[in-house]
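Inputs:
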Amino acid sequence: GQNIDQPTEMTATEGAIVQINCTYQTSGFNGLFWYQQHAGEAPTFLSYNVLDGLEEKGRFSSFLSRSKGYSYLLLKELQMKDSASYLCAALYNNNDMRFGAGTRLTVKP
Amino acid sequence: KAGVTQTPRYLIKTRGQQVTLSCSPISGHRSVSWYQQTPGQGLQFLFEYFSETQRNKGNFPGRFSGRQFSNSRSEMNVSTLELGDSALYLCASSYNRVGGTEAFFGQGTRLTVV
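Outputs:
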């Protein structure tokens, strides 16, 4: 199978750093996406990793380890508006993109 | 440029009926994917169309079907609706999903089956 696993919920404080982990099946893997989804809205693209390492984009960074089947999304200097669900999605060889169930992040003052 | 447009935004149907949802991708995008989103299951992949051909299919019963037209617009049909089909149906378009091209999501169609 192509199970994508990520925590269901996380809570963090405004101004802090939070890391959201994601594990996936490595067979046929092509790349890893992170999407943000605010309640009642469509998911929006955050990042795409295909090579091992850390990709930084402003307050958000995404890391990938292909050999371990592991990725994380790092959010720095958390703001209240970062409260949302974060979806991890893996793309496989057969053009198949599988999503995790999402991690609901709550940022508290 | 215009984003991904899904119609209708909200729909209420009764069990046993059928429903057709529509998705207009971003101009120039040839790949359209459909997903079902429920609170407990997250985003579940239904199918992907590319240049009018179904290129990939998820693990949903045959009651769920789709098609894509020559202008890349796509429709999804669910027949013999069940209560469990109540969900948010999202459509995502990309130029070509191969190579990890970013996908853009529509606002979704909220289907309620009563």
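Remarks. The mean pLDDT of chain A is 93. The interface with chain B takes residues 30-31, 33, 35, 41-45, 48, 50, 87, 89, 91, 94-102 of chain A (CB under 8 Å).
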